[in-house]
Every structure is written in structure tokens, then in C-alpha cells.
Design a protein that fits this description.
Transmembrane segments: 12-32, 44-64, 70-90, 111-133, 145-168, 205-224, 244-263
CATH topology: Rhopdopsin 7-helix transmembrane proteins
Distance between the termini: 56 Å
Keywords: Cell membrane, G-protein coupled receptor, Membrane, Receptor, Transducer, Transmembrane, Transmembrane helix
Number of helices: 10
Radius of gyration: 26 Å
Structural class: mainly alpha
Number of domains: 1
Pfam families: 7tm_1
Largest sheet: none
Membrane topology: Multi-pass membrane protein
Helix content: over 70%
GO cellular component, one term: plasma membrane
CATH architecture: Up-down Bundle
Length: 348
């Protein structure tokens, strides 16, 4: 009897698993490499990326090798629950940032690592409960466990997540209306700063709301199969749904990194910086190979002096730009200042 997956499914799923793992590693590396990305929110993004790495690098290969392996069920339960708890954690982060901005940094500084530990300890602990009754799927205990996972582990958290995002977008709408009232010549500077903050929080909340929605849709076949197993009506799940569910799971994990890169402003800026840096290095290499004289002992000192001088001028120019006051970037005409503010907050 062949325990492994059929070749026509194993090859594409293996390729998808490799791409998912690579994407998630890139996300983790970027947060580690660039200081601008080291925020509380991106800490939860890394945690979500780790669950995707587990899916692509561990769960998929185990399932491809042996579909009857008992470890597949445990790993799937851990990853499913970890996605839910991490999504709940990042929603809590966005809720505090929008609804309680004054205490956000204080609370997250105090509870960030505790929330992160909770987001992984709970899924692992809950997923190992079947070991207590020998993982016998025919027992009443396993039926209760499945209902508990569906209701307490999936349904209730996602109802709370949905309610939180509704409250977040309502609060953003209220703040936009308040900013419109503040938009006078005297208050335009403060309104512009607050408008940028509100716009950024709204866009970030939208990103994670989209990710949460994609997660629900892509895990829906698994949730359905778990439900029919809990009510002991496995005949209601067609055999092809098992294969389809693996592709939908891959699709969900595959879209996370591109969504961060294209829709999350800080990741997008870092991507653009990386591309520009690569282009500038390539151009510099071409120019230096054709224009710069060979570094002989006679002219090595001159080349070093010129390089230091260019770096000094560049750093001085950057400092001058950083020291420009915000008011110099604003229009002096009140009507133009008003339209400039609305450019910031109209996209929420």
C-alpha cells in the first residue's frame, strides 16, 4: 500500500512548500536586518511567518511522505491554532494602537513577549490533548475535543477579531471627521501629523483584516472536514476535498508575504530601498570599471581621499534634509494646506 502522496500532487505541493518557506524566511530576515521594521506589530508578523515556515518546511513534507502519519494531525492542529492565536494577537495590537494610542507603547512594552509566548504555548498545549486518550478518534473524548477546537479555538476568536476590526474602522472614521474640524490654518500642522498617523493605522488594520479573511477562506475546507468528523458524518466530505484543502492551505500561506510587501508601508519602503541599493551598486560597479583608474600604489591615497570626501558631502546633505522643519514642506496658502491634509487621510 502506498502511504505517500501521488506524484502529480507531491511535486507541485513540494514546490509550493519551498516557495512558502523561502518567502517567510525573507520576511523574518528583513525584520531582523532593518531597524525600521523592528516594531511590536512586525514581531507578530514574524510569528505568523514562523507558522508559515512550519507549514511549508515541516507539515507539507511529512504529509507528502506519509499521509497516514499521526504527526500530520498534530502539526495541522498546532499550525491552525497558532495562526488563530497570532491573528488574535496582531488584532489586539491594532486595536490598542487605534483605540488607546496613549497607552499603546506602555502596554505593548510590558506584555509583548507574554502575548507572543501565549500565542504559541496555547496551540501546542491544546493540540497535544489527544495524547491523554491515546489519539483514539472513535472515543467521545475526541468528539468533544473537536467541538472544542471548532467553537473555542476558531469560531469565538474570529467573531472577536471581526468585532475588533469593525470597531477599529468606526474609530478611524470618527477620527477623520474630527480632523476635518481641526483643519484651520492654525491647527493644520497638528492635523497633518495626526492625519498621517490615523491613515497609517487604518491601512495597517486593512492589511491584517485582509490576511484574516484569506486565512478563513483557505482553511474553510479543513474546518468543514473537522466538523463532519466531529458529528460522525465523514461521508459528507468528498475524497477530493482532502487534496483540494492542501492547495487552498498553500494558497493562503503563499499570499501572506506578498501582502506584507505590497500593502504594508514599512515593508514596501524597505523593498524599494533594497532594489535601489542593488541598482546603485550595479551602476557604481559599471562606472568604476570603466572610469576609475587602477588602484596602484601611486594613486591609492588619492582615491581614498576622494571617496571619503564624497561620503562626507553625502552625509552632510542627508543631515540638512533631515533637519528641515515640517512647516517648510507645507503650503502657506490655507486652501492648499487643507487639500494637503486631505491627501493624507482620504485613503483610509
Amino acid at each position: 500500500m502506498v502511504l505517500g502522496m501521488e506524484l502529480h500532487d507531491a511535486i507541485p505541493l513540494g514546490i509550493l512548500g519551498f516557495i512558502i518557506t523561502l518567502e517567510s524566511i525573507v520576511v523574518c530576515y528583513m525584520v531582523y536586518r532593518y531597524r525600521i521594521l523592528r516594531t511590536f506589530t512586525n514581531g507578530f508578523v514574524v510569528s505568523l511567518a514562523l507558522s508559515d515556515i512550519l507549514f511549508g518546511a515541516v507539515l507539507l513534507p511529512v504529509n507528502i511522505n506519509d499521509q497516514t502519519s499521526i504527526y500530520v494531525g498534530y502539526l495541522m492542529s498546532i499550525i491552525l491554532m497558532a495562526n488563530v492565536t497570532n491573528m488574535f494577537a496582531v488584532t489586539l495590537d491594532r486595536y490598542l494602537a487605534v483605540m488607546k494610542p496613549l497607552i499603546y507603547h506602555v502596554k505593548m512594552s510590558k506584555f509583548f513577549y507574554k502575548i507572543l509566548a501565549f500565542a504559541w504555548i496555547v496551540p501546542i498545549g491544546v493540540s497535544l490533548i489527544p495524547l491523554a486518550y491515546g489519539t483514539n478518534v472513535d472515543t467521545l473524548a475526541h468528539q468533544i475535543f473537536l467541538f472544542g477546537i471548532l467553537i473555542v479555538g476558531i469560531l469565538i476568536p474570529y467573531v472577536l477579531i471581526l468585532a475588533a476590526y469593525i470597531m477599529i474602522f468606526k474609530e478611524v472614521s470618527r477620527q477623520v471627521k474630527n480632523l476635518a474640524k481641526m483643519c484651520t490654518y492654525q491647527n493644520n500642522h497638528e492635523a497633518l501629523k495626526e492625519g498621517k498617523r490615523v491613515s497609517g493605522e487604518a491601512k495597517m488594520a486593512r492589511v491584517f483584516a485582509i490576511i484574516a479573511g484569506i486565512f478563513v477562506l483557505t482553511w474553510l475546507p479543513v474546518v468543514y472536514m473537522t466538523t463532519v468528523q466531529a458529528i460522525k458524518r465523514v461521508d459528507l466530505a468528498p475524497p477530493a476535498l482532502v487534496t483540494v484543502s492542501w492547495y487552498t492551505l498553500c494558497l493562503g500561506a503563499l499570499t501572506n508575504a506578498p501582502i506584507y510587501g505590497l500593502m504594508k508601508a514599512d515593508f514596501r519602503k524597505v523593498f524599494q530601498r533594497m532594489i535601489k541599493l542593488r541598482k546603485s551598486r550595479f551602476n557604481c560597479a559599471e562606472t568604476s570599471s570603466s572610469l576609475v583608474p587602477p588602484a596602484t600604489p601611486a594613486n591609492l591615497g588619492i582615491i581614498n581621499i576622494e571617496t571619503k570626501r564624497e561620503n562626507c558631502y553625502r552625509n552632510l546633505h542627508i543631515r540638512k534634509r533631515q533637519q528641515e522643519p515640517l512647516e517648510s514642506l507645507l503650503e502657506t496658502n490655507p486652501r492648499k494646506r487643507h487639500s494637503q491634509l486631505w491627501k493624507v487621510i482620504k485613503d483610509f
